[in-house]
Amino acid sequence: MLSKYQDQKVILVGKVLPSDQAGPGMFMLLAADNQQVAVQMQDPETTLSAQQIYEVLGTVSSEGTMLEEVHFPYSDNFDLENYNRMLNLAHGKFSNMFWD
């Protein structure tokens, strides 16, 4: 799904997967829709806690990965399922409230 946003800034919320699934300076994020997304960190020395939920702002590359600009940790009790339901409503039934 990210590929349709190539070269655009997006916000992605998801859970960080164990680091052995990504290369140096990268991490894998399990998004709210259960899609795995490779995220390239702006600072390759930055580490994120596995299983922690983050919001990541970045640009989608031509390879379908995300180039991180900034990230924010969310609380442990953030409900990704409810967040995904809200996104489905915002992009579906109630899209006229959020988009042109």
UniProtKB/TrEMBL annotation:
Annotated GO CC locations: DNA replication factor A complex; site of double-strand break
Record bears the keyword ATP-binding: no
Coiled-coil regions listed: none
Name the UniProt record assigns to this protein: Replication protein A 14 kDa subunit B
Family: Belongs to the replication factor A protein 3 family.
Subcellular location: Nucleus
Keyword tags: Nucleus
One Pfam family cited in the UniProt record for this chain: Rep_fac-A_3
UniProt source species: Hondaea fermentalgiana
Taxonomy, superkingdom: Eukaryota
Thylakoid recorded as keyword: no
Gene Ontology MF: a single term: single-stranded DNA binding
GO annotation, biological process: base-excision repair; DNA replication; double-strand break repair via homologous recombination; mismatch repair; nucleotide-excision repair
